[in-house]
DNA sequence: TCCTTCGGCGC
DNA sequence: GCGCCGAAGGA
C-alpha cells in the first residue's frame, strides 16, 4: 500500500505525519495517525510524543489526530463559559492566574547550530545568574495599548493605580506601570516591593531588579486595603 | 528482529 | 466513541 508521509504545517521541517486507514477487521474504516521525527523515529500516540519531547513542551493544545495546534482547546477538565447555563449558578470564578503564553508552531525539538567565535574564552560561572530566566529589560512596554475585553468584545475599563506609585525606567505611563505590577504579581509568589535599590532609579538599564516591577519602592498600608474593600462607584460588578 | 496492522482495554 | 498500546503475524 502506498504510504504518504505528508509535511505537517504545524511542525518544523523534517517532521512527517501519516494517516493509515484500517482496511479490514472489526475496526475497518478507522484510521491510525503516526508521526515521524526528522531522525525517522515513529510516534503513534500523544503520550509517546510527550515523553520524547520532555517536560519543557506543553502539548495540551496539540491535536494529535489533525496535527494542528488548537488554542483554547484545553482538553483537560471541560471549560465552562459565562454564557454557558451551567456556569451561571455555582460556577467557580476563574482562579487560574497563570499568564497566557504565546503559542508557536515550533513545539518540537529542533537542531541548533552552536557557533563559538572565541574558543579560548573562559566562561565565568555564576550559578545565581545562571538559574535566572533571561528576560528583556522593560519588556512590559510591549504590552502598551493592549486591552482586555469581555466575551461580547466590550473593552473592559482599565484600573486606576494609587497615587503613590511612581514608575522607574524609560516609560512612565500608567499603562506600562499597571502591566508591570500585574505581571510581577503573577510571576512570583515572593513579595512585590518595587525597586528597592536607589541606583535603579538613576540607571535602570543596569541596576533594575528584574524580579520586581518597574516602580519605585512602595509599601501597602492598612488604609490602602480599606480603600480597596470599599465598593467602587460607577463600576458594575459583572458584565451581562 | 523489525514492522505493519488490528484488537481491545480503559477512560 | 476514541486514544493508546499490546501483540499477532508476516517479512
UniProtKB/TrEMBL annotation:
<dbReference type="InterPro" id="IPR016177">
    <property type="entry name" value="DNA-bd_dom_sf"/>
</dbReference>
<dbReference type="GO" id="GO:0000122">
    <property type="term" value="P:negative regulation of transcription by RNA polymerase II"/>
</dbReference>
<dbReference type="InterPro" id="IPR032343">
    <property type="entry name" value="MBD2/MBD3_p55-bd"/>
</dbReference>
<keyword id="KW-0238">DNA-binding</keyword>
<protein>
    <submittedName>
        <fullName>Methyl-CpG binding domain protein 2</fullName>
    </submittedName>
</protein>
<dbReference type="GO" id="GO:0006346">
    <property type="term" value="P:DNA methylation-dependent constitutive heterochromatin formation"/>
</dbReference>
<keyword id="KW-0804">Transcription</keyword>
<dbReference type="GO" id="GO:0000785">
    <property type="term" value="C:chromatin"/>
</dbReference>
<dbReference type="Pfam" id="PF16564">
    <property type="entry name" value="MBDa"/>
</dbReference>
<dbReference type="GO" id="GO:0000118">
    <property type="term" value="C:histone deacetylase complex"/>
</dbReference>
<dbReference type="Pfam" id="PF14048">
    <property type="entry name" value="MBD_C"/>
</dbReference>
<dbReference type="InterPro" id="IPR025884">
    <property type="entry name" value="MeCpG-bd_2/3_C_dom"/>
</dbReference>
<keyword id="KW-0158">Chromosome</keyword>
<keyword id="KW-0539">Nucleus</keyword>
<feature type="region of interest" description="Disordered">
    <location>
        <begin position="73"/>
        <end position="95"/>
    </location>
</feature>
<feature type="domain" description="MBD">
    <location>
        <begin position="1"/>
        <end position="69"/>
    </location>
</feature>
<keyword id="KW-0597">Phosphoprotein</keyword>
<keyword id="KW-0805">Transcription regulation</keyword>
<dbReference type="GO" id="GO:0008327">
    <property type="term" value="F:methyl-CpG binding"/>
</dbReference>
<dbReference type="InterPro" id="IPR001739">
    <property type="entry name" value="Methyl_CpG_DNA-bd"/>
</dbReference>
<dbReference type="Pfam" id="PF01429">
    <property type="entry name" value="MBD"/>
</dbReference>
